[in-house]
Amino acid sequence: MSHDHEHEERPDLALRVEALESLLTEKGFLDSKQVDAIVRHYEQDVGPLNGAKVVAKAWTDPAYKTRLLADGTAAIAELGLGGPQGEYMVVVENTKSVHNVVVCTLCSCYPWPVLGLPPAWYKSPAYRSRIVREPRAVLRELGLELPGEVEVRVWDSSSEVRYLVLPERPEGSERLSEDALRACVTRDAMIGVARARVPGDG
Amino acid sequence: MAEPSLDLAGPAAPPRRNGEMVFEAPWESRLFGLTLALCPEGRLEGEEFRRALIAAITDWERGGHQPETWSYYRCWAAALERVLAGKGLCAPPELDARERALAAREPGHDHRHD
């Protein structure tokens, strides 16, 4: 494929956004300190570690797991987590026979309180369109090969529902504490494009 | 049309670990932050913004652009501008004028001299 075609540049909207912020602030609609605080919160405080806490608790506390699968929003709120984009959470469980994977085909809805902000690939047109039509092929490209007998379920997020995947507890993790288990749970495992694994294992 | 392939090495590559940068550029984080800051004040309604974001993404996908020029936050910016203009909170001409004014600043404008 030729690479010498006319390139459209990836956009840099720095000036445009600065203009927006300065105008909206001037009109009294916006407080820049509040913007600073929101950005700091999402860059530093909210992230997949929150979801990992939920998963590790579900792995070690069967009663919690039952509550989590019955009412995700309430069980996640028990751990003090919640907020924008996490209003109605549904948790879907991976088993030996069922593998769940999450997408938002229309925009990029994502459970912010438990996973932080979505990664670039989750928002890409390719992931959003292809994971629904050919989930096995996309998962394979992302490094997850599923046996043919495993049923793949794709969950399309909407303005009403955000999904979180409860991955299978990895082999070799039987003796780990709840704290140590958190380290087995990656963001990708909770979207459903990877397995949970004991750190350092192949 | 050829199926877009997942970008396994470029800027949209799937990270393999927790904890990567959530924004690719500072303007993306400012845009995100200011959008959220408008919500609790009631200036912006979440569902209205989401519908505009879906429309902006759909417009881009139907526009025949090069895949490598995809920018989620550019669609986000287009959606926000549209909603703000629709509500009469920020008209496109005044935004254009402010952007031109900012572009015309002297180099080093953001250095304090005190």
Structure description:
The complex is a heterodimer of chains A (202) and B (114). With 202 residues, chain A is mostly helical. Chain A has two domains: 14-43, no CATH class; 48-191, Nitrile hydratase alpha /Thiocyanate hydrolase gamma (Nitrile Hydratase, Chain A, Alpha-Beta Complex). In chain A, 45% of the residues lie in helices and 11% in strands. Chain A has helices spanning 14-26, 32-45, 48-60, 62-70, 72-78, 112-115, 120-123, 125-133, 135-141, 178-182, 187-191, and strands at 89-93, 98-103, 151-156, 162-166. In chain A, the strands form two sheets. Chain A has a two-stranded parallel ribbon. In chain A, helix 3 (48-60) packs across helix 4 and helix 8 packs across helix 9. The longest helix of chain A has 14 residues, at 32-45. By secondary structure, chain B is mainly α. Chain B has a domain at 26-103. Chain B has four helices and no strands. Chain B has helices at residues 26-38, 46-62, 72-86, 92-103. The longest helix of chain B is centred in the middle third of the chain and has 17 residues, at 46-62. Classes of the chains: A mainly alpha (202), B mainly alpha (114). Chains A and B meet through helix 1, helix 2, helix 3, helix 7 and helix 8 of A and helix 1, helix 2, helix 3 and helix 4 of B.
In short:
By secondary structure, chain A is mainly alpha-helical. Chain A contains eleven helices and four strands. Chain B has a domain at 26-103.
